[in-house]
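S., here's the first fold you wanted:
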Amino acid sequence: MGEISGVRRRFVRAAMDAPFLEREEERELAVRWREKRDEAALHRLTSAHMRLVISLATRFRHYGLPMADLVQEGHVGLLEAAARFEPERDVRFSTYATWWIRASIQDYILRNWSIVRGGTSSAQKALFFNLRRLRARLTRGGEERIADEVHGKIAEAIGVSRKDVALMDARLSAPDTSLNAPMQDADSSGSTERVEFLVDTSPLPDEKVSEVIDNERRVRWLQQALEVLNERELRILRARRLDDEQVTLEFLGDRLGISKERVRQIENRALEKLKRALIDRHPHATGAFV
């Protein structure tokens, strides 16, 4: 363990001792890497900016993840910045690389801070990384403010809903708890697991299968009963009751050359014929179509 700490200290010392680059030297190294894939130029460019990686990684140390991992992810972001940097633009590499380093570290934190994945949208990321700071600022100086008011101001500042703020606040306020963690049973001296208290309200497998079979049977009965209708009754009933896009009585009347009242009469007669056919053929299952 002491040997690992020594390696880390030497790494940090080497990063801090790396010489700063002047603007022209920085630009030359970036050009050599982009155009010639000069590994030595890339090494000098990134080595000179490792202190920036360490500085940014330090800002995220309070999330409880290993500092070495944060620095490593920051280095990945630094390499990504070097691959995308355009030397001809009048921007210092450190300014450009800062965004990529921070983004890489934040993505790592979101992936590993909790076993439960949070939102990955830009608004959710902003909420995750700014919630503590904004909450501390709004309650600064010992001022007591109700949670709903604080959540409302944070939601307005970041551009998310109050519900999202409350949910994220709850997640950041408590660690993950395993569903297999024991809970003391009030009725006995033993303990049970949290998972045993979860209730699944979805239908049981046999109920799902039974529902599928019943639906298929009803469809088959309905198709057989439709045979008692004549062509016009079937056309009106399909258009008014069975098709996904149902039409009005007036529309059907115009298409068939009759009044909408006549269409309504034919529809009602077709429904009565259909009902009688179903009852006659399946008297024991009349409730299936109620």
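And the second, which I think is the more interesting of the pair:
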Amino acid sequence: MVPIALTIAGSDSGGGAGIQADLKTFSALGVYGASVITAVTAQNTRTVTRIDPASPAMIAAQIDAVFEDLDIRVVKLGMLGGPEAIDTVAQGLAGRAVPVVLDPVMVAKSGDRLLPAQALAALRSQLLPRATLLTPNLPEAADLLGCDMARDEDAMIRQAQDLRAMGAQAVMMKGGHAAGAECVDLLVTKSGIIRLVAPRIATRNTHGTGCTLSAAIAAGLAQGMALDGAVTRAHHYLQGAIAAADTLQVGTGHGPVHHFHRVWAHG
């Protein structure tokens, strides 16, 4: 039986992030993807022009429908939109013994805010304690903690430990917003720290990197991989997707990464 992963997130009409990126990533890594749409966005590679949230009743109905019929092995949480959606998702997952990868999506690559500031408290109190893995970038970690963005690896580790103290079992601090020739991600668990390093690739086509990484980790967990193995494979997969992104030539702004760089013969 093929492993099944569920993504609960917003829809990206440009196809590079959100539900679309998650489902592409699941498929590229051999996992069947199901989805719960929390919001519909009108966006492209340059901007987000409109966000229409799904009603709490619709979000709850989607969650119930999927879990009633499908053998969900892991849940990946992305853009949730606001406190009502966060509360609905938390209630929908209550009592379900399934790993949760939480990507605290707050701001789009275009700079448009996707999570209102007033929803931060709900995210902290209701979903962080449910997270098997939290995957913030550096600005998101700072927002969650109400502090300045980490500027070095020591600060990244301290912030990861602070986030673990808020309830997340493990935290992957993504270093894409840092400076330097290398991009360093840090997986911080109760067992220790794993440092994942890759050359910083010179491209503007990085739309959906956060969604893609967290979805790739979720795919590994759905396939029965241990967390460190799932994170390591996802890290390598994303680096390949970024390296091949310029071959897609999608849009005129921040284009998507190449989710099928291992599958497509050309492009």
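Why I say that: The mean pLDDT is 92. The CA atoms of residues 74 and 99 lie 5 Å apart.

Talk tomorrow,
H.
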